[in-house]
Amino acid sequence: MSTSQPAEPGDEIARLGALAADFRRRLELDPGAIYPAHAECLWRLGNLQIAQGDVEAGLLSISDSVGLYRAIAQAQPDSYAVQLASLLNSQSNMLAEASHLEEARAIASDAVEHARSAMDDYGDQARFVLVSALINLAGLKMRSGDTAGTVDELAQAVEVFRDGGTAGQPFLGSMVEALHRAAMAFTEVGLWNEAIDTRRLLIGLFGQAPPSAVVQLLMLTLQQASVGLAGTGDTAKALVHANEAVDLARMLFAADGQANRLALAQAVGNLAGRHHDAGSLKEALDLSLEAVDLFQDAVSMDPIHAVPSLIVTLDCMASILTALGLPDQAATVREQRSQLQETLEIIAPRAN
Q1: Rounded to whole angstroms, what are the CA distances from 190 to 183, 195, 198?
Q2: 315 contact partners, CB below 8 Å, separation of at least 6
Q3: Which one-letter DSSP state was computed for residue 349?
Q4: How many CB atoms within 10 Å of residue 233?
Q5: Is 125 left (phi over 0), alpha (psi -120 to 50) or beta?
């Protein structure tokens, strides 16, 4: 018994091109006719052309296909309205991959509008097409430098997602990944407000009971922001973020002290540093003492991660004691810090 072999890409492109030409001849005879198979043919042709490296020809075929799907969706909305929104979103992604960013953003906006309109009539059938389109548009706005627009689109995506209730669970992973990647991108370039806002959106996905890991990500971003802002001289705002990080760490510690002791120690140590930056030496010293106590308990459970953070906190404490006019105590703390550094070199030697 013989088995048919899959067509070579070149042969399939030729076949689909001939089929598309045949549809065009039919339309010359009957201009008002609508052939869904014609639109599907051009869509498959465009994807194959792009996959074979003929990107511009492929994008043209995709554009022609979407033009036909627009007419088909207008005539048969029950069958094609949601599909049109999804195809527009896919077209936008293809344009972005080909670096046609302005056109990609315009098509993405169109996909959002079509998906939003489709939701009025088709509900959850269109909901997650809308979520995907909003995330895509957010990414394109980020690439063009529109950070406020990026966060706004992500916030809309979270709202639409949450309104879907349990129906959204299959898409939760994609939402978490999109928000996490956006927050990381903002963090890398020091856009602290946007990074923190995006972390809050990530928590918002889970309603009143977010996983501790998601809360920890916000806590870490707040600490990073506090350090970054302190470095640029904005000590007041740095303190606000460091305080919130400690509040979150205390909440997690109250729920599970063993699992979150190190995180609380790091957050308290960071807050001590920010008070030191602001000149609040008494508060800084009290917090550094609390952090050291927490670290000493954490070292026995996780020395590899606890010791480096404890060293940083001891550095801060020594500086605070020096500023308070207590050089002998500062020297004692620095000696402890040196001993810990030697210990760290033994338990976690740095790579050459």
Answers
A1: 10, 8, 13
A2: 337
A3: P
A4: 9
A5: alpha
Q: Give the domains, in start order, of the chain with CATH numbers.
A: 211-352 (1.25.40.10)
Roughly what angle, to the nearest 10 degrees, separates helices 147-163 and 192-204? Answer: 0
3-state secondary structure 218-250: HHHHHHHHHHHHHHCCCHHHHHHHHHHHHHHHH
Burial pattern 45-57, b for ≥16 Cβ within 10 A else e, equals bbbbbbeeeebeb
Q: How far is CA 13 from CA 17, 38, 67, 231, in A?
A: 6, 14, 20, 58
Quote the tokens at residue 270. Answer: 């960071």
| Residue whose C-alpha is closest to residue 110's, from 134, 126, 141, 94 | 134
Residue for token pair 């946007």: 194
Residue from 101, 110, 151 nearest 130 by CA: 110
CA distances, 107 to each of 89, 111, 141, 205, 214 (Å): 7, 6, 13, 27, 33
Digit-by-digit pLDDT tens for the chain (352 residues) are 444 556 688 889 999 999 999 999 998 888 888 889 999 999 999 999 999 999 999 999 999 999 999 999 999 999 999 999 999 999 999 999 999 999 999 999 999 999 999 998 898 889 999 999 999 999 999 999 999 999 999 999 999 999 988 888 888 999 999 999 999 999 999 999 999 999 999 999 998 889 999 999 999 999 999 999 999 999 999 999 999 999 999 999 999 999 999 999 999 999 999 999 999 999 999 999 999 999 988 888 888 888 999 999 999 999 999 999 999 999 999 999 998 888 888 776 653 3
Rounded distance, CA 35 to CA 29, Å?
13
Q: What is the pTM of this model?
A: 0.85
Residue 109 to residues 56, 75, 78, 117, 143: CA-CA distances in angstroms?
A: 22, 22, 22, 12, 15
